[in-house]
Amino acid sequence: MFTLFKTSPKFPQVKPINIRMAKSYLMKFEESLKNFEEVQKEAIHS
User: Fold this and answer.
1) Rounded-to-integer distance, Cα 19 and Cα 28, Å
2) How many CA atoms lie within 13 A of 11 on its CB side?
3) What's the pTM value of the predicted model, to 2 decimals?
């Protein structure tokens, strides 16, 4: 019999994360992507 809620050794334990931290991380990530795109454009035009 297979039980869904038994912790499987194959999968890592899921830990709760701070939503605010995740949001700020994503915002920083998007910002760095925009900066990267701008640098790419400058590199092409120069």
Assistant:
1) 14
2) 8
3) 0.51
